[in-house]
Design goal:
Elements lengths: L11 E3 L1 H7 L2 E6 L9 H16 L4 E5 L3 H13 L2 E6 L5 H9 L3 E4 L4 H14 L3 E3 L6 H7 L1 H9 L6 E5 L4 H12 L7 E6 L4 H7 L16 E4 L10 E4 L7 H4 L6 H9 L4 E6 L1 H14 L5 H6 L6 H7 L10 E6 L7 H16 L3 E5 L5 E5 L1
Parallel strand pairs: 2-12, 3-4, 3-6, 4-5, 7-8, 7-12, 8-11
Antiparallel strand pairs: 1-2, 9-10, 13-14
Helix pairs in contact: 2-3, 2-6, 6-8, 7-8, 8-11, 12-15
């Protein structure tokens, strides 16, 4: 039996502003309130607890991540009095190094790219008997832990939702929502997964597999490679990004997603709907949400892009024929990579882009493009 979870139940906030804007009942699941400022604390703290059960109290947690996964592991290790080492590539922001060290983590800057930092972390695990690699997003224990937010939703919401919105990168949060919905008998609830263009490996990966729109031609952008289906990929095709062009890639920038989460998404009865938005749309949502509620990082505001664009929202969750109001949940996934100066810069970029007129193009789940008013 697992020990009591380290995470606390997070609030569910009714957003009167978003509800009024969309003509729905809109709720915000505040996953930004965990000790590591993101939902990742759920699954990674559970992973750490089980590592103690398996390897003993001297287990050493190793992680290669300069993002929210690294901070979640560091926070869990601090709370459990475990040793933790975080590997990052050269070029990681000093603020990232500082926040990890404040949690007591041993921070090692190795390699020019993430892949080299990951290789160094794996070498550390291989040579130290007590060391265990903590996964960033591709692990059943993480999905089980993340899924606990759905268990909480079943007691917080007045009714079963018509859709749950989240951002997606490698698929850890989405895997948790799929797992949690299954446990709650909510398999029929649509999950709307949003990414930014230039950091959208999940959108492309899902599209490559039947019955999705790109499963025959398998046409991908020049910087995206096809990973053919094998037993290692659970029999699904994947898209591998060789470079990132989105400013949200610091948190959403997985080179390729979890093949198991792609498989679960394809098999899910309630369907997983994907959409890829331009950075400017996420930036605009970041500013709007800061005015209404709280400043969040760009990866998190990507979830909120439909919250301020009713026509876009209706494409994702069509109005009910009965006229009854829809009930939706936006997962405020959190993240520590946010600052007032950065948000101000983004607001200026959006203002410049809007001054040029036109619309923003969103890549929709069926391969079509939807034009969103700036």
């Amino acid at each position: 039996m697992d020990p009591a979870p380290l995470w606390e139940k997070t609030p569910l906030l009714y957003s009167s502003k978003i509800s009024e804007t969309l003509g729905v009942h809109a709720y915000l699941k505040l996953e930004n309130l965990h000790p590591s400022h993101s939902f990742k604390y759920r699954g990674l703290s559970l992973f750490a607890q089980r590592a103690i059960s398996t390897h003993g109290p001297n287990v050493h947690l190793i992680v290669a991540s300069g993002g929210n996964a690294g901070l979640a592991v560091a926070c869990a290790a601090r709370d459990l009095h475990l040793k933790c080492s975080v590997y990052l590539p050269v070029g990681a922001a000093q603020s990232t190094l500082d926040i990890l060290r404040r949690q007591g983590a041993d921070v090692l800057v190795v390699g020019r790219f993430y892949a080299e930092a990951l290789q160094a972390a794996q070498s550390h695990v291989d040579r130290e008997p007590n060391a265990v690699m903590a996964p960033a997003y591709d692990h059943e224990t993480l999905w089980e832990g993340h899924g606990s937010m759905v268990t909480e939703l079943t007691t917080q919401l007045p009714t079963k939702p018509d859709a749950i919105f989240c951002s997606v990168g490698g698929g850890g949060l989405l895997g948790g929502l799929i797992h949690g919905c299954s446990k709650a008998s909510w398999d029929d609830v649509p999950l709307i997964a949003l990414e930014t263009i230039g950091s959208n490996c999940f959108y492309h990966s899902l599209s490559l597999n039947a019955p999705r729109f790109n499963n025959v031609s398998k046409t991908l952008p020049p910087s995206v490679a096809l990973v053919p289906p094998t037993s290692d990929t659970h029999g699904v095709s994947l898209a591998h990004l060789h470079q990132f062009t989105s400013k949200a890639s610091g948190s959403l920038g997985a080179s390729q997603p979890s093949s198991r989460v792609v498989q679960m998404a394809l098999e899910r009865a309630g369907r997983v709907v994907t959409a890829s938005v331009p950075d400017e749309l996420s930036m605009q949502a970041q500013t709007a949400f800061a005015d209404d509620h709280k400043l969040v990082e760009l990866a998190c505001s990507t979830t909120l892009t439909p919250a301020y664009k009713p026509a876009f929202f209706d494409q994702l969750v069509p109005p009910k024929s009965s006229g009854e109001k829809r009930t939706v949940v936006f997962i405020i996934c959190g993240g520590f990579k946010v600052s007032l100066s950065e948000a101000t810069e983004y607001a200026s970029l959006v203002a410049e882009d809007k001054a040029q007129g036109g619309t923003w193009s969103v890549l929709m789940d069926d391969g079509s493009t939807f034009e969103v008013e700036k």
